[in-house]
Design a protein that fits this description.
The protein is an alpha/beta fold. The protein is about 20% helix and about 30% strand. The chain has helices spanning about 20-30, 55-60, 90-100, 190-210; strands spanning about 1-5, 10-15, 65-70, 75-85, 115-125, 145-150, 160-165, 175-180, 215, 220, 225-235. The relative contact order is 0.23.
Length: about 240
């Protein structure tokens, strides 16, 4: 298991695009690329109460572990890297151990419909109800924070847009596509956020985000499908 540095959140200021009809047309064109994010199968079953490290349970230790799973084209994990530590090695190790043992995904296809590797990023928490919460905050899911000059009236902040894209063996991005899913922790407002900011999210991500290439079973860089979250907030006046 390898611990990776927490990604840097970049901040840019842009002018938002508020023509709803035109925005919807642009999103429809992007979705036509048919690039899908990795789709987990029963993720709630990957980690259970019996996975709580015995020493951590006895000592009332808790924590959130963020991880990055590299997924084979068949939908099985081949590598787990910790991207944000819980502060406890046994909790981090158990998180990755459970992911490698039980995580499964639907077979993954690239933008051309060919089998592909993928990267899935999420977090798991070990916490005893009734005890003090973990000493470290839950890792943010935002990869790029973008400030806009003005948000639409009544628009909640942040406006989160999840996007999927392909990454080649050198780290170059292509085929960026906003997506909606029931298993990504998206809010009920995600469709409107995607209509407003989907095209902008892909453009800003291409300017500021540098994904890490996936590695195959032999440790060689390979093309992959990856995801990121772009969050939009209004600039302070």
């Amino acid at each position: 298991m390898q611990t990776l540095a927490i990604p840097i959140i970049a901040i840019r200021t842009v002018t938002p695009f508020f023509d709803y009809r035109e925005a919807g047309n642009m999103i429809s064109a992007l979705l036509a690329l048919a690039l899908a994010a990795p789709q987990p199968i029963r993720p709630d079953e990957w980690i259970g109460p019996n996975d709580y490290p015995s020493d951590a349970l006895r000592e009332n230790r808790s924590g959130h572990t963020a991880f990055r799973l590299t997924i084979s084209p068949s939908g099985r994990p081949i590598r787990c890297d910790v991207t944000a530590s819980s502060g406890w090695e046994d909790i981090d190790q158990q998180s990755c151990r459970g992911m490698m043992k039980r995580a499964r995904f639907k077979p993954i296809l690239d933008g051309n419909g060919a089998p592909a590797y993928a990267v899935y990023r999420s977090s798991r928490s070990f916490w005893i109800p009734g005890e003090a919460p973990p000493r470290t905050p839950k890792p943010s899911r935002t990869d790029l924070l973008v400030t806009v000059e003005k948000m639409p009236k009544g628009r909640a902040q942040p406006a989160d847009v999840d996007v999927a894209f392909t990454v080649d063996g050198n780290g170059a991005m292509a085929d960026c596509t906003p997506y909606l899913t029931d298993t990504a922790g998206q809010t009920a407002d995600a469709p409107r956020a995607m209509a407003l900011f989907g095209a902008v999210a892909c453009g800003e991500l291409a300017k500021s985000y540098r994904p890490t290439p996936a590695l195959d079973e032999g440790g060689r860089p390979v093309p992959s499908v990856q995801t990121a979250r772009v969050s939009f907030v209004q600039a302070a006046e």
